[in-house]
Design goal:
This protein is an alpha+beta fold. Helix content is 34%, strand content 20%. Helix 4 crosses helix 6 and helix 9 crosses helix 10.
Length: 408
Amino acid sequence: MTRQQWLGSFSRTMVFAALFCFWTITAHGKVVSDIDRLTALEKQDQDLLKRAAEHPDTGILVTDDQGRRLFSKNPDVPYVPASILKILTSLAALSQWGENHRFTTLAGYDPDSGILYIKGLGDPLFVSEVIRNFSQQLVENFGMQEVKGIVIDQSHFSPEISIPGTGQSLNPYDATTGALCANFNTIHFTWDATERTFVSAESQTPLLALFIPDIRDTGLKQGRILLNTEERYRYPGLLLTHFLEKLGVHVTGPVKTGSVPDSVLKKSPDSPFTLLSLSSPWTLEEVVAKLLKYSNNFIANQVMLALGAHIHGPPATLDKGIRVLSDCAASLPDWETARMAEGSGLSRLNRITPSQMGQLLLAFMPYHQLLQRSDTQYYKTGTLTGVRTRAGYFIGTDQRLYPFVIMK
């Protein structure tokens, strides 16, 4: 070997050694100076990593936009992901349905009996503005002047669904899912000191007198509470009643749960009325953006369950939803050991490693702009008692994206 060849070989060896040192940290999890070498990151992001790395039990992973590992600490230790799990739920929905998918709700009116049927298919954003516009479309399409009863069909979701991590309180974070849920099954109220009564805290939503006793029982002057089980099923119909009457339709009968007749669902020629499919004003891309921005547990699990019913057939169940998430994760490298118990991150039974999150972030990169943005990051945070997580993409000084995850 000539001296020139030897020097070339030596240089390559030294470069490899330098890269190896750059990509690895000590086995004891101590803070090392490698973070200072992440010169493609802004200083504030380097400082964030340094603070996180000070704790010996923290899991950290930073890669480049090709998945090459730049820094890691405890990368293969499973952690409770909390709300960063919503990135997986979002990816599963976008991959299956596409960005332009819209949730739908079915409606039919029997002119002979005067019964209005509404069948929910899991729309996670069936909120007051949607219900008001929905009512307008019903009047325009059916020409109704009187409704002698409203039947809410909740059969697209199993009534037995219990999301791990939720409790039995009336707090909004314990909101339950369903085939047709109005305003996340919650009431947002405040106290009007002038009128000395409770009023809605949302201008678009009426506060129905039926719920005043529940509000008084809380002892609160303002806030948001979860409806009890029986009221949740009927609440969409009660709001429809309010908006239909505002449009001049006389609603003379009760709101109850039931089923849309098979003759309507199968579009039988003998049926006296037709079935309308009314679409959400929001695309799935917009739904996911809201889900991630507000970290809404209800929307996340509602999307997961509706997706499970779409792929595996109704009624939606927790098992079908988890199967969809598991199938999506199975398409990612090294996700065999991950555990998912639901789709929002509420459950402590969820377990994901930083390395697995890194693979998820690479797959989610085409949708990175749906995450919240700061000056130097697109990110999602997660919080449970004793759990803090953060995942997303550093925006490098070279304007490239650097996937990262911090779990502790």
